[in-house]
Amino acid sequence: MPSSGGQKKMKQIYVPPETGKFMFCLFFIFLSYCHVCFSELSSNQTSTMIELSRLLNISDWNLPGSERNPCSWKGVMCSRPNNGSVISLSLSGFDLSNSSFLPLVCQIETLETLDVSKNILSLIPDEFVTKCETLVGLKHLNFSRNNISSSPSFQDFSKLEVLDFSYNFLSGKTGDYGLDRLVQLRSLNLSFNMFTGSVPIYLSRSLEKLEVSDNLLSGTIPEGIEDYKELKLLDLSDNQLTGSIPSSLGNLSKLESLLLSNNDLSGSIPESLSSIQTLGRFAANSNHFTGDIPSGITRYLANLDLSFNNLKGSIPGDLLSPLKLVSVDLSSNQFVEWMPQSISPSLVRLRLGSNKLSGTVPSDAFESLQNLTYLEMDNNHLTGHIPPAFGNLVSLTLLNLAMNEFTGTLPPFGNLTRLQVIKLQENKLTGEIPDDIKLLSNLLTLNVSWNSLSGSIPPSLTQLKKLSTMNLQDNNLNGSIPENIGDLEDLIELQLGQNRLSGEIPAPDSLISLTQLILSNNQLTGSTPRFTRNVLVNVSGNPGIKPIKEDKVSIKRSSSGKRKLVLVLITVAIGVSALVAGIITVIVLKPSRRFKGVNNVQVDPDEEGSTVLPEIIHGKLLTSNSLHKSNINFAKAVEAVARPENALYQTMFWSYYRVVMPSGSSYFIKKLNSRDRIFQLACSEQLELELEMLGKLHHTNVMVPLAYVLYSEGCLLVYDFPHMLTLYDVLHNHTSAVVDWTSRFSIAVGIAQGISYLHGSQSSGRDPILLPDLSSKKIILKSLNEPLVGDIELFKVIDPSKSNSSLSAVAGTIGYIPPEYAYTMRVTMAGNVYSFGVILLELLTGRPAVSEGRELAKWVQSHSSQQEQRNNILDLRVSKTSTVATKQMLRVLSVALACIDISPGARPKMKTVLRMLTRL
Ligand SMILES: *[C@@H]1O[C@H](CO)[C@@H](O)[C@H](O)[C@H]1NC(C)=O
Ligand SMILES: *[C@@H]1O[C@H](CO)[C@@H](O)[C@H](O)[C@H]1NC(C)=O
Ligand SMILES: *[C@@H]1O[C@H](CO)[C@@H](O)[C@H](O)[C@H]1NC(C)=O
Ligand SMILES: *[C@@H]1O[C@H](CO)[C@@H](O)[C@H](O)[C@H]1NC(C)=O
C-alpha cells in the first residue's frame, strides 16, 4: 500500500478512532444504508466509488447488495491481502462518452492504474490533471481507443510509467503534452493519432517502448534516438519519415522489435543492425530502400520484412540459414540472384514474389524443411525443374510459383497433404497431372493454367471435395471431363477452356456453388449446361455444341415439389493459410442483374398454367401504423409472389417483389428461399417470434418489416418503400447522375447510425443484431441522403453451422467479407465494421467493392500508405468540386481505413465510427 502524503491527510480527517467508526455505522444503519461498515475500504473510498457508480451508471456495479463491497465490482481491483484500498480501476469498453467522471477518480488517492480504453470519450478535462496531481502512486494510464482530440499537458504525472494514448484524434506536436517531464516513463504509445512534427527524442531515458505508428510524423529518424538505451520496442511505422536509417540505431543493444514500415525512408539498410543480439523482428517494408541486403542481417532475427522496396543484388547466401528465423518477406524488390544453399529448418514463411530472380532453385536447400508453411516465388524468371524437395515440405499450405519459367513436370504431391493453394500458372510445365493429386484432401485452389500439361484430367481429381477453384485453362489436356465432376460440390469456378477436351459435357447441375463454368475452345459435344441461377457459362469455340444465349436467367416458380433451392452463392474461398500469407483467392461474380433481370425472366412452360394459390398458414402485422394496417393484404401478397414476372431479382437468400395492394399502394416483399438446411428457422414459429422482436425495432435508418406471412410455400416479409433504389445502383450505375459529397456524407452517417443502433449497447437490453451480408446493395435509399440498412432478418434466419462446407465458407458478398472470416467463420460486430468500411470506400472512391477482380479494400490499402497518394484515391468527380469536400473526404478515408484494419480487434466499434464521422 503506498504510504503517501495523501494517505496521511486522509487519516487526519477521515479515519475515525474505534468509537468514531461505531458512530459512523450507527448513523448509516439509522438510514438503513450500511454499506460502509461491510466494506474493508475506507469510508472515504467507498463513498467515492459509490458516487462514481451513480455517475457512470454501470449496470454491473448496481447489482443489489454490491454497494457493500466496491472491491467486487467489475474492473475494480483492491490492494491485497485485505482489500484496504482501491489500486486499479478498469473502465475499458463501458461505452463512456462523458469524461466528467475523470476528476472524481482522482479522489482515490491510492490508485495506481486507470484504464478507460475502448470508450467514446472525446476529451480529457483540465481538472483531471489538476485534481490528479495528488495521485502520486499513479503509474499506468490507458486512454487507448477513444475519440480524444483534446488533452491537457501531462507534465505533473511524474510517477507515470505507462501512458497509452493510441487510437485517438490527438494532433499537434508530441512536445505539446509535457511528456518530457515524465521521467519515469517506460512505455509510451501514441500510435494511430494525428501527431505532426518529428520523432520525439526528449523523453525519459528509461523508455522501453516507444510506439508512434500511424501518425503524420515527418523528418528523419533522429540520431538522438540512440540515447534511449533501454528501448526494446521502437515502432515508427506508417508515418512520413524520410532520410535513411541512422547506423547508430545499432547501439540500441536491448532492441527487440524495430518497425519502420510504410514511410518514405531511403538509402541502404545499415549493417550495424545485425549486431543487435536481441533484435527478433525488423520490418522496413514499403519504403524506398535501395542497395544490397547487408550480410548477417538475419543473424538474430525471427522475422524480417523488407518487401516493397527497391533492394537489389542477390539474396545473400547466409540470409535464410539462422536457426531462429521464422518469416522472411522480400517480395516486390529487384533481387536478381538466389544464393542461399541452406535454409533454417525453423522457417515458416518465405515470400520472394515479384522480383527478378533467375536461374534455378537448389533443391538441397529445401530438404527437410518441416515447418515451411507458405512459399511464394511467383512472378520471377526462375528456370529449371520445380525442385523435387518441394515434394517433402509436409507443412506446406500454400505454394505459389506462378509466372516463372519452370519446366519439367509437376512435383510429386503425395506428401503435401496440407496444401490448400497451388498456383503454378504461367510456367512451361509439361507432363500429366499426377494421379496422387487426389491425396491433397485440403486443396481449395488449383491453378495450373497457361502451361503445357498433357494427358487427361485424372478422374481422381473429383475426390478433392474442398476444391473451390480449378483452373486448368490453356494446356494440352485431352480426353473427356471426368464423369463425376458433379461431386465437387464446393466448386465455384471451373476453368477448362483452351484445351483439347472432347466427349460429352457431363451433368454439372449438382455443382450448386458454381458461379463460372468456362469450357470454351475445346472439342466438347452435347448441349450447353443450364442452371436455374446466375452462372457464367462459356462454351464458345466448341464446334460440337450449339450455343444458347448466355445471358438468360430463369427464375422458376416455386412449386411444392422437388424444386431445388435456388441459391446464388456469393462465395469466397479463403484458406486460412492463404489469408495469413496475405493471399486471398477471390472469385469475382458478375454483378447481379438487378432490375434488368425482370426483362429476361422466362416462365417455365410446364408451370405457366397453374392457378391454384398456396394456402396461408399465418399472417401478422408487425406495424401499428393504421395506414399500413388497412393497406396490407396477405392474400394479395401471396398471389403476387406466385407470378414470377413480378420478381425484381434474386439473391442468395431472397427473391424480391413489388406488389400493388388492392388499395392501390405498393409494397416491397421479400420471399425467403428457405428450402435449405442453412436456414435454422426457415419458416417456423420461432421465426415468428424473432420477426416480432425485429418488428419492434424503430430507427430512421433501419428497414424494419411491417408484416410477415407464413404460407405453404415459404414465408414473406412486407416492407414500405416500394421504389427500391439501392446505394449500389446510385453509385455504380452509370446512368445515374453523380451524387455530390454532401449527400454521400449523409448517407455514410445514416448507415453508421443504423448499424450502430442494430449493434445496440449495454443499455439496449437485447442481443446485438448483426448483418451477415452488409453491402451497398443492402442499403436502400429513401432519398439521396436518407439510407436504410436492409436485410436485418438474415442473422436470425440462417445458421452457418448447419451449412455444408462451401456455405460455411460463405457469408456476405465478395469485397465486403472481413479477412478473419476465413478462419473464424463467424459473423461479428467487427466484421460488420469492416463491411461498413468498404461501403465508406465506395462512397469515397465511387468504385464498386470489387472491380476487375480486385477488392476495393485491398486496392485502397495499397494506395493510401502515403498521404499524398490519398488524394488520388478519391472520386475526382466529387473531390474536385471543393477543397472543403476534399478535406472532409480525406478524414473519412482515415475512418474507413481504421474500419478495414486487417485485425478485427483494431477496428473501432460502430459507435466510435459514428462519433468519428459526426465530429468531422
Ligand atoms: C476523500 O478524501 C479526499 C482527500 O482528503 C477529499 O478531498 C475528499 O473530499 C474525500 N471524499 C469524501 C467523499 O469524503
Ligand atoms: C477482496 O475483494 C475480492 C473481490 O470482491 C474478494 O474476492 C476477496 O475475497 C476480498 N478479500 C478480502 C480479504 O476481503
Ligand atoms: C490499453 O488498452 C488497450 C485496449 O483495452 C489494450 O489493448 C492495451 O494493451 C492497453 N495498453 C497498455 C499499455 O496496457
Ligand atoms: C489462375 O491463373 C490465371 C492466369 O494467370 C489468372 O488469370 C487467374 O486469376 C488465376 N486464378 C486464381 C484463382 O488464382
Notes on the protein architecture:
The protein is of the alpha/beta class and 920 residues long. Among the domains are: 454-555, Leucine-rich repeat, LRR (right-handed beta-alpha superhelix), CATH 3.80.10; 557-591; 592-720, Phosphorylase Kinase, domain 1 (2-Layer Sandwich), CATH 3.30.200.20; 727-918, Orthogonal Bundle (Transferase(Phosphotransferase), domain 1). 20% of the residues lie in helices and 16% in strands. The strands form eight sheets. It has a 21-stranded mixed sheet, with no helix packed on it. β3 (113-115), α6 and β4 (140-142) form a beta-alpha-beta unit. The chain is globular, with a radius of gyration of 32 Å. Mean pLDDT is 82; it is low at 1-17, 23-38, 550-611, 676-681 and 800-810. The structure holds 2-acetamido-2-deoxy-beta-D-glucopyranose (NAG) (4 copies).
What key phrases describe this protein's structure?
disordered N terminus, Leucine-rich repeat receptor-like tyrosine-protein kinase PXC3, six-stranded antiparallel beta sheet, 920 residues, Leu-rich_rpt_typical-subtyp, Phosphorylase Kinase, domain 1, binds 2-acetamido-2-deoxy-beta-D-glucopyranose, 20% helix, Leucine-rich repeat, LRR (right-handed beta-alpha superhelix), alpha/beta, 21-stranded mixed beta sheet, transmembrane, 23 helices
